[in-house]
């Protein structure tokens, strides 16, 4: 058996992994096993790094999306929404499932784009906007969630294009509706354009309040030479409680060519610039 002094005098033979002769000497002197310690710096660093990763999982936060990536995502979500509502005849042909899909697609677009602030950029509303979808039209009345003439056989009214004409300087807000009124045979149907004139004001950053002023009707086609007819306004005392002559809605998304609004009665509307 090796003495304690002989062991202390040969520490390098125990820790060296490169000397074969020293290893054999240790085994001949009675050591039943050989202890090998790898002291290469790179191995030690690898061991420490692996231990740290095994004990603590640290994930770096993902980088914020670039402006280009956000713009591409918004364009994709807009296309998705327009594809959903394009075949619904402005909402008149929408089923309950169609309404839910349009609402979900709108919310997805609104979430990515973020809140609208018109207080510093009201010019975004300027122009003539074409209505391509209204969730309220699924009620089968031209007034949507408000009282309006029904569509169908009892009163043959065909809804044409619907526009909103907004002037941010004069605060004019006109709803323009093209209608085709059925007439007894052999008379042709009567084509008219009804303009519901309003004034608007901005409430907060994205809420719009409109106040009704008057309605004028202009004939089209063979009768287009007739002057516009201004319909008398119903006195406020005779108005039903549901038709006060004013309304509010929130602009939840707007850019250079698309606008989404949500009305005070839950009505979702989608417009494109015309």
From TrEMBL:
Organism whose genome encodes this protein: Theobroma cacao
This protein's GO CC annotations: chloroplast thylakoid membrane
Keyword Plastid tagged: yes
Main subcellular localisation: plastid
Keywords carried by this UniProt record: Plastid, Transit peptide
Name recorded for this polypeptide: Plastid-lipid associated protein PAP / fibrillin family protein
Boundaries of every Plastid lipid-associated protein/fibrillin conserved domain copy: 76-271
A GO biological-process term: chloroplast organization
Subcellular location: Plastid
Pfam families: PAP_fibrillin (PF04755)
């Amino acid at each position: 058996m090796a003495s304690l002094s002989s062991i202390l005098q040969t520490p390098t033979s125990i820790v060296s992994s490169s000397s074969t002769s020293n290893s054999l000497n240790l085994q001949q002197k009675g050591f039943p096993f050989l202890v090998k310690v790898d002291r290469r710096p790179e191995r030690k660093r690898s061991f420490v790094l692996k231990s740290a990763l095994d004990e603590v999982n640290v994930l770096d936060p993902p980088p914020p999306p670039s402006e280009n990536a956000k713009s591409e995502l918004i364009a994709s979500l807009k296309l998705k929404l327009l594809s959903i509502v394009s075949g619904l005849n402005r909402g008149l042909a929408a089923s309950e499932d169609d309404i839910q899909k349009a609402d979900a697609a709108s919310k997805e677009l609104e979430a990515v784009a973020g809140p609208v602030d018109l207080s510093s950029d009201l010019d975004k509303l300027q122009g003539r906007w074409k209505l391509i979808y209204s969730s309220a039209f699924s009620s089968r009345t031209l007034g949507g969630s408000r009282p309006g003439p029904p569509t169908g056989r009892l009163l043959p009214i065909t809804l044409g294009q619907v526009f909103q004409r907004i002037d941010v300087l004069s605060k004019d807000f006109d709803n323009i509706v093209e209608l085709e009124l059925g007439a007894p045979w052999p008379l042709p149907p009567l084509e008219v354009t009804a303009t519901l004139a309003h004034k608007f004001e901005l409430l907060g950053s994205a809420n719009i309040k409109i106040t009704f002023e008057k309605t004028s009707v202009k004939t089209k086609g063979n009768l287009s030479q007739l002057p516009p007819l201004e319909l008398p306004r119903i006195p406020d005392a005779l108005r039903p409680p549901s038709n006060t002559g004013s309304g509010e809605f929130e602009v939840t998304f707007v850019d250079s060519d698309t606008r989404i609004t949500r009305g005070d009665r839950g009505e979702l509307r989608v417009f494109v610039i015309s």
